[in-house]
Amino acid sequence: MPQTKPTTHVVQPPLKGQALNLALATAASVVGFWAWNVVATLSTHYAKAMELSAGTMGILVAMPIFVGSLGRVVIGPMTDRFGGRALFTLVLVASIPPVLLVALGGTLNSFVLVLVAGFLLGVAGTVFAVGIPFVSAWYPPARRGFATGVFGAGMVGTALAAFLNPRLVKWIGYAPTHFLLAGVLAVMAVVVWCFMKNAPDWRPSQEPVLPEMLDAAKLAVTWKMCFLYAVVFGGFVSFATYLPTYLRDVYAFDPSAAGARTAGFAVAAVIARPIGGVLADKIGAKPVVLLSLAGVAVLGWLVALQPAADVQSGPVFLALAASLGLGTGGVFAWVGALSPAGKVGSVSGIVSAAGGLGGYFPPLIMGWTYNPDATHYKYAIGLSLLVATALIALVVTLAFVRTTARQPAARSQ
Prior knowledge:
The chain is mostly helical. The chain is built from 18 helices and no strands.
């Protein structure tokens, strides 16, 4: 009798250039996040030089977040249409004039000019909506959690901005700091254009941008992921942008000390993000997101209790950052797995916009609810709202988001 050959599982080899293009996309994201946070990380400088109240400072810090978030809705489908190489280059080049305008506004101590520059600087924040569809096209569905998690580590640009910007202002001056950043953006744009390539299997979408966005908006997965990402990524953006102001008001840290601690917060989130993506590939995204939201709720409550500086507050803030990072990796692993072919850019654009908008309102609320006369718990209202939102998201995920990432990913291979 003829023997039946055993069925073997064929593992698809990595595409040539896969790692290089993931590294380039991540590096471009780092630089984009650095530029996006240039105003927020110098908030103490502006507050002192322009004599800004907490509420006014909140508006200034939140402006790039708002515009960058809305811009992602358009940039995502444009990436499906024109490819990541072109869009990465466009975003990096378009970020240079706003950075220079921030330099001019700050030199003149003009709140209006810095606010307008912050509005235009929102373009740098759209870099995230370029990278998700770009790296997703380079990796099979079963590894997209890993790929989007590594790319999401580009959030370390936030840490870079928080750590370097106050020190660079002290070492070389306010305007030269911004000139240096503009130069880095230009160099990164050239590197991307010369060395980055779109995935071999990528094909440009022929659909007009607006109908493509509307089609993505009709998908149930889009709105489920929008809500979750608004909580986890919005929470990260809120803390990363407002933390220097918070640490000054609550713990009386100077700009350099506050920047170093904000950088540590961002690094913890960055490390946790790819871990969240890999765990989502292994066990499904839902358990990862549930763990993240539970951690945010508990740790947000501990932050509201205003623990003593560093010895108590340091571990709490780092754990909170890790919880938020874990959640961002888990949610976008879900997005990459559940989005229909050819619509990853459109869906990720809308979802990442929701995440950015989730980070827009908390700094405003923190500024408006800040109680400078209180001996303790000066930000109690804002932090209590964070805890409540995380608990609501936890219940919604547990009760209503039933689809796992693993099953759709397997069907799409």
